[in-house]
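Lecture notes, part 5. Sequence design as translation. It can be helpful to think of inverse folding as translation between two languages: the language of shapes and the language of residues. The source text, in structure tokens, appears below.
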């Protein structure tokens, strides 16, 4: 079977590998849907998870499928059962030896790792189940930001993680959410998924727009936007700009991968008592998002913009790499 591997910066290839066989503690999942993540795009750009690697790096960690093989020591799972894969257990598609953009995926050590696989409710489609992983990242970012009732939040970036964060901020009772993105396509999706307003940073100054949308706060530093929480989900070099516009007492949560080191003026943080938090992956949110999708309380369908067959993976990746045209791109395996 052909599986995408990163061989160096900008070097993505489809390599032929053997289909996996489950050991006593393992499970093999026949993949039905796999989502392309912004981190996949970043890994290709950098040549690996944290820069060029000494070996090819497989991709794919947003996964739903059906169990094809079960090791003799594994309990609680059966062939034919539909599951989602928690990729954090084996760093699947994140530097580990396996990646999920494949017809079959080996999930190692399921016998000893509770939560490596979660059963998909019968009424939940594979497409929705494959969105659980990015939804969990967004839920973790929303939770780590501390935003809730009474807060006015600005989310930078309306890619899949930004959209997932908006969904969860709305669930957490945030009063007003503004989405900031260069792409009109993505701004429209943000409004559908819960944003109250959007800003095109090419059309107006973001700080001035936030003053208009969130009101102003008077401080020693003059009139500033009364935005109480900022979330950086774009990966663009905007952290310095956010800190410069943030009013005293505001908080910033960074959930994006920053491709270059970021300089921070700690005098600004000190004088205005700003708080910086980061959010990486998820904990209990993974199972919680499966419950959310199963409940039908939120229509997550608008997160998906494109669908491709597995044989067209390179075309799918090219579309996913274009923020002007894509949100979540799903790859389907028969």
């Amino acid at each position: 079977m052909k599986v995408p591997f990163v061989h160096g910066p900008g070097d993505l290839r489809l390599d032929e590998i053997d289909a996996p066989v489950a050991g006593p503690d393992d499970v093999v999942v026949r993949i039905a849907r796999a989502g392309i993540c912004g981190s996949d795009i970043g890994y290709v750009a950098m040549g690996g998870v944290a820069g060029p690697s000494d070996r090819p790096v497989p991709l794919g960690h947003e996964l739903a499928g059906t169990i094809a093989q079960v090791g003799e020591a594994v309990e609680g799972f059966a062939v034919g059962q539909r599951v989602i894969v928690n990729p954090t257990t084996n760093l699947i598609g994140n530097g580990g030896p396996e990646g999920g953009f494949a017809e079959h995926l080996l999930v190692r050590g399921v016998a000893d790792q509770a939560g490596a696989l979660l059963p998909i409710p019968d009424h939940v489609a594979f497409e929705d189940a494959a969105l659980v992983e990015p939804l969990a990242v967004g839920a973790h970012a929303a939770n780590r930001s501390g935003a809730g009732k009474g807060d006015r939040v600005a989310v930078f970036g309306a890619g899949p993680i930004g959209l997932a964060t908006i969904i969860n901020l709305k669930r957490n009772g945030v009063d007003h959410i503004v989405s900031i993105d260069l792409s009109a396509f993505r701004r429209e999706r943000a409004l559908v998924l819960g944003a109250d307003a959007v800003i095109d940073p090419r059309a107006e100054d973001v700080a001035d727009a936030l003053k208009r949308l969130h009101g102003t706060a008077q401080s020693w530093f003059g009139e500033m936007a009364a935005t109480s929480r900022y979330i950086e989900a774009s990966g663009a070099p905007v952290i310095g700009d956010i800190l410069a516009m943030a009013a005293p007492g505001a908080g910033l949560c960074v959930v994006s991968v920053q491709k270059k080191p970021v300089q921070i003026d700690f005098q600004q943080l000190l004088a205005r008592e700003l708080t910086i938090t980061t959010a990486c992956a998820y904990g209990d949110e993974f199972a919680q998002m499966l419950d959310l999708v199963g409940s039908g309380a939120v229509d997550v369908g608008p997160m998906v913009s494109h669908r491709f067959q597995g044989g067209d993976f390179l075309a799918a990746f090219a579309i996913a790499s274009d923020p002007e045209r894509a949100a979540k791109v799903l790859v389907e395996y028969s």
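The translated text above is only one of many valid answers, since several sequences can fold into similar shapes. The domain at 138-278 is CATH 3.40.50.720 (Rossmann fold).
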